[in-house]
Q: What sequence folds into this?
């Protein structure tokens, strides 16, 4: 795009109503960046809940097992095998992003001033018949069995957690040792267990090299994610990315602090080439700074638009596939769906309770966006306005370096080196005292 | 024995300290709430804008002034109104500017309108927050906003407040905390949950704030000590039911709001002298 037309668009977009961010999408950091990150889509309206779980499972399919506490015995129609693409779409749409701007020729004073003013006005923050007797002795009841897609699914109820653990092991599920302690509180709350393993024959039929996400729909007064079960064999901190879809407002945790990641800041332009490394370092640094005790909001937006768009918003059909039951693609008009993207880095010690949520009345959009400002690359002395401009650029670059260092924990001197900023040699204070 | 020694060392010092301090406990309450709000805004990244705070105080003080003048109430002052405004700033969140002043007006106005047996019925901050949640769009409260890493510091600050501000009726705070945390502990044990769940609840800043600054408001709790203790138990049980049976958020403010109508009833059952703020 030609520079002047680019600028025109910037002005146009910046003049849009408050809280609309402006800029051009140039890169994103998607969920694939974080190894072993579990991804969940949580759709909620009233007590109606649809959960989709994506398994990043890399091992032998025969060894795969998934145990999820559910409030009731799910019927066959409440379970579905979804499309992994929906996760990719949601991830792409809500991923942290870079936006960039190009400075105008400072000698074109009037336009420059206008741009500055607009910028300032822009928002700042932006199965088992034979085993029946054995089951009874273990206190485990098989409530239902289904084969859905490539999964064999059993819905269990249990009386004792060690009985349930034994049942799972005897029936060929790979359950980490110590699971019974984690299962116990769910049993005592009379929850059922949704247990899935891979049906090798059915899997071969799909012809896919990966496991598709499992989805289930149910009613529950609890707006939560059972985080604790996944921690049984956790070694280090684990990542969870939750795409929460609701009708009206931003979703936050009620039993942990929920904060927005630092965003909408200017960073050095070299970040463009290594945005993934930058975002990973930033998230590591922020998670450590908060001692792995908080839930980070990475994105909150009305799903009918975006600005700048990292990917197109989901179509009504795609939303429906994601579990947004109130959207009817046939109806024509697009009903509201708000997406809150939450990113949690948790450890067993810092997240002792399952994650509870609430839908707030907050409707203010938020995205983790970082801004690149390209300086005008012209002659330093063509007009009187050029000198103050270049001075401002130097100050700005120093600030960008400091911001980057603070966000990521990267060494400031290295950043200066990358940016070509020559640091002034700072001697001792007394060196020049008697000279 | 140890207790006596501790008393011998600390009590005279504390008495002397108290003698030099203003008599009206509300001054301390304002200082504590101001430091909590500053801490929240500066270190806890509250989603609160300074304009919202300014408008809360402006509307709150104006409402108080209008009410005092039109009802010709002498010497009632503005301390309580300022406390309510701090409470609303700390608790209420909104994505517009008009919610806070409106909630402050409703909260303080209620003191002059909703009166039973010579006392105002609702804790104004509680009523303001509930009015926001129930009537105004784009309004919410963030029970998790304090996090849990400052738990020890929060307890320390609260205890400091209790020691220096003896004028208040803290029995209700302790009774409430004992009942609420006792029931949380019982639930953790009954469900076989990780004991850290209890510790996690213990460090909940919102709980401490509620116990020491909202339910302890001496004007809106029963006058008689026995009635107050029973009231604290009822509010705690209600909050537990709301949180762990209904699984709904914001149990504490809901419990207080829905239990408040019991206060005139309890005042009738157990008669005692009404609380009076000592003038500063």
A:
């Amino acid at each position: 795009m030609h520079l002047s037309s680019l600028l025109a668009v910037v002005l146009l977009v910046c003049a849009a109503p408050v809280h609309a961010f402006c800029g051009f999408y140039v890169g994103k950091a998607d969920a694939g960046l974080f190894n072993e990150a579990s991804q969940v889509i949580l759709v909620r309206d009233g007590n109606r809940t649809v959960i989709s779980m994506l398994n990043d499972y890399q091992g032998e399919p025969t060894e795969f097992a998934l145990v999820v506490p559910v409030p009731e015995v799910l019927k066959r129609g409440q379970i579905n095998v979804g499309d992994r693409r929906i996760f990719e779409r949601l991830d792409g749409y809500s991923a942290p992003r870079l936006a960039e701007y190009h400075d105008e020729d400072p000698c074109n004073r009037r336009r420059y001033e206008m741009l500055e003013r607009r910028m300032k006005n822009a928002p700042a923050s932006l199965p088992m018949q034979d085993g029946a007797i054995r089951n009874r002795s273990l206190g485990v009841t098989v409530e239902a069995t289904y084969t859905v897609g490539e999964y064999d699914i059993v819905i269990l109820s249990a009386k004792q957690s060690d009985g349930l653990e034994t049942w799972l092991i005897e029936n060929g599920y790979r359950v980490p040792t110590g699971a019974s302690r984690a299962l116990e509180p769910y049993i005592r709350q009379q929850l059922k267990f949704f247990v899935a393993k891979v049906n090798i024959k059915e899997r071969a039929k799909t012809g896919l090299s990966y496991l598709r996400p499992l989805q289930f729909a149910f009613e529950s007064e609890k707006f939560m994610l059972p985080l604790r079960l996944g921690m049984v064999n956790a070694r280090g901190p684990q990542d969870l990315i939750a795409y929460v879809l609701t009708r009206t407002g931003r979703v936050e945790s009620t039993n942990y602090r929920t904060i927005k990641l630092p965003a909408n800041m200017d960073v050095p332009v070299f970040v463009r080439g290594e945005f993934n490394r930058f975002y990973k370092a930033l998230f590591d640094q922020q998670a450590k700074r908060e001692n792995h005790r908080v839930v980070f909001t990475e994105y909150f937006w009305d799903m009918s638009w975006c600005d700048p768009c990292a990917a197109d918003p989901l179509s009504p059909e795609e939303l429906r596939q994601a579990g947004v039951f109130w959207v009817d693609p046939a109806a024509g008009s697009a009903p509201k769906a708000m997406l809150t993207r939450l990113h949690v880095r948790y450890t067993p010690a810092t997240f002792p309770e399952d994650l509870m949520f609430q839908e707030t009345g907050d409707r203010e959009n938020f995205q983790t966006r970082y801004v690149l400002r390209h300086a005008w690359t012209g002659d330093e002395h063509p007009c009187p306005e050029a000198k103050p401009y270049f001075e401002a650029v130097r100050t700005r670059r120093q600030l960008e370096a400091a911001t980057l260092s603070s966000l990521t924990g990267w060494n400031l001197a290295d950043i200066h080196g990358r940016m070509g900023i020559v640091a002034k040699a700072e001697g001792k204070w007394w060196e020049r005292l008697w000279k | 024995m140890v207790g006596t020694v501790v008393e011998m060392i600390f009590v005279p010092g504390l008495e002397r300290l108290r003698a030099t301090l203003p008599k009206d406990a509300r001054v301390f309450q304002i200082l504590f709430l101001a430091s909590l709000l500053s801490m929240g805004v500066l270190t806890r990244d509250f989603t609160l804008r300074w304009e919202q705070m300014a408008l809360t105080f402006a509307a709150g003080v104006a409402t108080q002034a209008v009410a005092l003048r039109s009802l010709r109430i002498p010497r009632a002052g503005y301390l309580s109104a300022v406390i309510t405004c701090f409470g609303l700033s700390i608790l209420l969140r909104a994505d517009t500017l008009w919610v806070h002043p409106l909630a402050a007006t409703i909260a303080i106005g209620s003191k002059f309108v909703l009166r039973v047996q010579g006392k105002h019925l609702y804790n104004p901050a509680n009523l303001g927050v509930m009015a926001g949640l129930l009537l105004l769009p784009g309004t919410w409260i963030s029970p998790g906003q304090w996090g849990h890493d400052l738990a020890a510091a929060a307890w320390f600050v609260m205890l400091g407040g209790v020691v220096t501000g003896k004028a208040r009726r803290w029995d209700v705070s302790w009774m409430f905390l004992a009942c609420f945390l006792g029931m949380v502990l019982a639930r953790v044990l009954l469900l076989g949950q990780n004991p850290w769940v209890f510790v996690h609840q213990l460090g909940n800043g919102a709980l401490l704030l509620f116990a020491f600054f909202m339910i302890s408001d001496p004007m809106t709790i029963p006058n008689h000590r026995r009635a107050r203790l029973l009231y604290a138990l009822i509010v705690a049980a209600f909050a537990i039911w709301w949180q762990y049976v209904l699984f709904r958020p914001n149990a504490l403010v809901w419990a207080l709001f829905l239990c408040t109508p019991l206060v005139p009833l309890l005042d009738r059952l157990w008669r005692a002298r009404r609380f009076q703020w000592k003038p500063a």
Observations:
- Chain B touches chain A at residues 44-45, 47, 93-95, 137-140, 142-149, 190-194, 196-197, 199-200, 204, 246-250 (CB under 8 Å).
